[in-house]
Amino acid sequence: MKTQFICFALLYSLLSWAEPISPMDEAYEQLTRYNFKESLVLFRQIQKEAESGSNEWLKATFGLAVSCQHNSPPDTALLEEAEKQYKLLVSTKPESAYGKRAKLFLGRLLEIQDHHKDEVDLEGARTCYSELSTDYPNEEIGDEALLRLAGTYTQQVDDLAEVKKGVVLLEEWLTKRPDNPLASAMYEVLAEVYFTQLGERTKALDAWLAADERGLLLNVTARSMYWRIAVVAEQEGRLDTAIAYYQKIITDQARSGRAFDSQLALKRLQGEYPDRQITIPKIELFSDDMGDGK
Amino acid sequence: MNFKKNLNLFGLIFLLVAFLVSVARVVMLSAESGEGPLSGGKKVIRLLHWQLEPGYREAMQDAIDSYNKLPHVVEANVEVRQMAVTERVYEQFLNVHLISGTAPDIVEKGKARMAGGHFTARYFEPLADHVKDPNPYNAREYLPERVPEELVKLLATIPWRESFIDGMRGGWDDTLQNYFAVPSAFWGPVRLYYNEKMMMKAKGLVRRSMDAQPQPDWLANALRPLEDGGYLPDTPELRAWLDNPKEPPQTLGQLLLVCFSVPELRSEVGDSRLVPISGSSYGGGMFAGNYLVPFTARLAIDADYDLDSDTSAVEMRAAWRKKEWDFNDPHMRGYFEAIQLISAQFPPGFLGLDREQSNRRFTQGHAMMIATGGWDAISIFQGAENKTNPEDRFHVGVTDFPMPGPGERWHHLIEARASEAGISAGAPYAIYQQSRNKEWALDFMRYLTSFKVNEEFNRQAGWIPCIVGTSPSERMKPFTPITRGIKNQSISLGRGSDHVSSEFNGQFLLYQTGDIPYEQMVEVSEAAMREDRMGLNRFWFMEWQKERDNYRNLERMLAVQTCRQLMTGAEDAVDKYRAGLSKSAVDNGGEHLRSLWYQVNPDDDFPNF
After folding, report:
1. Strand, helix or coil at A137?
2. Which helix (H) or strand (E) holds A294?
3. Tell me, what's the ipTM?
4. CB contact under 8 A, A257 and B469
5. Angle B573-587/A183-192 helices, nearest 10 degrees?
6. What pTM was estimated for this model as a whole?
7. I want to staple B472 with a disulfide (CB 3.0 to 4.6 A). Which of A100, A287, B464, B541 is the partner?
8. A17-39 residue pLDDT tens
9. Do A66 and B562 touch (CB under 8 A)?
10. Are A257 and B555 within 8 A, CB to CB?
11. Which residues of B405-419 are buried (b: 16+ CB within 10 A; e: fewer)?
């Protein structure tokens, strides 16, 4: 019996080298690994034990709300709990970073259909976004809220009047805050709507250019955007822009698969406009210049 | 009574001994794996992959051995070991170990369900923080002398991710907006391998037959005027090519010509089983895939309504509904005609043959050509060139798929070959989240993807290195991705994973083998598109649903990044969030698909199933 106990103890000590971590750290780690089922249990416990309104409580409540909202597969009861927790944060600490973010995420929860029986509350979402953009017009949370608010209109693709409301919202915001941190994304959205829904190619081109000028937030977007700019600019007769972007595709986006097409386009333009002295960059990608002959 | 008592005692002793042996075994195995108090502090890093192709494991072992000998690695008592598991069980093996928490430290990412999708973040270490610093193994002292000074300086200073030719795109996860794997090689694109000896004989036969009076039927028919069913003209260029015995086919017409000569060639070489091309269920689609863009790109480009350089399956089918293309279009007819003719050069019943059978037919000299990727190169080269009987050996040439040349049938339908510029590095390795030795696992991956090691490793494995400035072995240079070509846009109802694509793919196979005429394939495929419940409308709805799901899933990533920012002030969380937000806003919930619907079907409501 004594021997067995020693062996069990030995086994246990051999197998368990993990150092204990705090419940909050554990909950955070599970959340960042997308283990929402585990993280929501942990955050719930921490919330119970934390003082209401304290930093610990804010973290736990927010973590609990996020975990409930994003647990997979979606669960109606958990989604309701997520809504409740977001509203609790908003009512308890509306001015805190957690409170503001909770209002935005509440809007997302109301707007997006989480499962096929989930009811979308578009007006509820619009209220959240509208309040945030009104209350925080000079903060990034306000920018993001406005972007989302515009999205609720531009998504009504079967009603162009609604789509145009979204366009107006973005245009007005960009007039007031032309260089806000999300301006590039706003211009991208405008370009997309102008081009695919409203057929306004010139405006789309200008919006893409504005987006690129401010630096794209998602770099990989450049692959398709530069081609669109080059082609539409050429079609609109804006040759300098077209040439610059065909060249940019070759030098900066060689992996987009459009580099060769861009070379062909520049060659064609060379022929049509010999006085412009158009240069055609080389495609620098795979090279065996370094081969040692093995 | 004594006997019974003794028996009980014996049983107890036996149980105890078995238990002690079990404990001892666990302790020993743990020590061997670098775990437990008896391991002597040894850290064993296990690396798992499924690459059993000839040369790969040896090349990996050489890289591992050289790493294990590095002074700082020896000092830290670290040892890397590889584990190769066959593809057939890799998925189950990895899934089980990921779930049970016993996965190796480094795993080749792929095959297993738990190694992808939304399981990625759960099981694997995000690498964004690690890839922004230079790879220390690209410092000057590790580089070969031949590297120019400019490149030496570049490699020493650029972030690790920038040292990859594809910017480490092969390890990037778009949904999670992070790097979750380190690619280690380019899989060579698909090429045409040919038996040089046989090709020379075929060309010789064609050349002699050109001067014969009369010419054999197979040649005379091929050289007829195009309007009379011919494939290529008799030109000085053709004769010059024939007079250069080692040059592989430069045009599709030339390729077909040597194929047509094979029935007569059989008696000349004494091989009744000789076929022009070793096709199979595996390789049969490679010709169809490689000629799809050249033939149909023009139609696809016109269907790229949003000009985003990608003709989606929805756009392609929408263009069909708008009657902007159909199967009577010369590009479509020409493509299918060409593919059926090429497939007629495969062995009869080729759909019943698999990859190994097809490769074996070629390496045994019973086929003049075969199409497959660079991943089969070493086994094919060795199979053909290392036979016991020197007379059976033959050198294998590699060439690109030739396009119809000037004056040949279909030449006027060809846009250009497809560019391979967008190819991403592959054979990606991910670090297991629960690895106790993540830092060392990462260190080994830095080593494996350093300039010198990556080049040597891939040359030995017969693959293509993926680090800036490296080059493959001479033999593998034909597999270097070709950048001269147009964007990969095409028309094919086979894309889509729905009822229509299933019907079309089935019909296409029957057409390819000559079992049904073109008109039947078209009729059945178009009928599938028109079906109320399972046709184009349903596909459109399903694609929209998929976009909505992706839009929803992106919220998950945004939420996690927000938590990272608010709870720990993670520096990169803001940029990641903004990138994801940008994508979410522009994707607009997939509504561009509904917008396209209303443009194509202005009088119909968007379908709902």
Report:
1. coil
2. none
3. 0.92
4. no
5. 20
6. 0.87
7. B464
8. 555 789 999 999 999 989 999 99
9. yes
10. no
11. bebbbbbebbbbbbb
